[in-house]
Design brief:
globular, three-stranded antiparallel beta sheet, 7 helices
Length: 203
């Protein structure tokens, strides 16, 4: 049987209070230590169930466990990207090759941002900027929960979590103010790195 590493909660790339005043220390603590940890635990539990079922030759609970892998795995992976997508010295606008590609695929940075904000307003989970290797272009994607509405084969390079646990403590029902605050801490260097990784793999 092959050995797989256990999923682990990654450490934040900054202090819990580093994103203030845009995102509070309390929200980051709850979000990272409780919500993200929950997806890591759910993924580990589901993978253990699948392994046990394979060994026993009893697959009665495997369907539910596979759904749990998809839900919790996507939650774990997207949250990991979400933390990396932010930085206390972030904000501003993208530059270089990423800026050029955004303007090529969306007409302008403003065109991209307006569409991304619309995705964040419509989503019941996540707004994602992804690289679509089939069409060879960037796309904004509306994802409900963690895994509903994803585009097969695409690679997320920017993830904004709009589940209520991301912002209600700080902003109440005013999701729009939270979206604005996110743009004050976007780590465009990380987004650009993810974009370049896509080019290396897919183009």
């Amino acid at each position: 049987m092959s050995e797989h590493s256990e999923p682990e909660l990654p450490e934040l790339p900054y202090d819990y209070d580093a994103l203030e005043p845009h995102i509070s220390e309390q929200v980051v603590t709850w979000h990272h230590d409780t919500h993200h940890q929950g997806y890591v635990n759910g993924l580990a539990s589901a993978e253990e169930t699948l392994a046990d079922n394979r060994e026993a030759g009893d697959f009665g609970s495997s369907g539910g466990a596979m759904r749990s892998v998809t839900h919790n795995g996507a939650g774990h992976y997207l949250h990991t990207l979400f933390w990396e997508n932010m930085h206390p010295n972030g904000g501003g606008e993208p530059e270089g090759d990423l800026r050029d590609r955004i303007e090529e695929d969306f007409g302008s940075y403003e065109g991209w941002k307006g569409e991304f904000e619309a995705a964040a307003g419509a989503a019941g989970g996540w707004a994602l900027l992804v690289y679509d290797p089939v069409a060879k272009q960037l796309r904004n994607v509306v994802v409900d929960k963690h895994d509903q509405g994803a585009l097969w084969g695409s690679h997320p390079i920017l993830a904004l979590d709009v589940w209520e646990h991301s912002y209600y403590y700080d902003y109440g029902p005013d999701r729009g103010s939270f979206i604005d605050a996110f743009f004050e801490v976007v780590n465009w260097d990380k987004v650009a790195d993810e974009y370049q990784t896509c080019l290396g793999h897919f183009e």
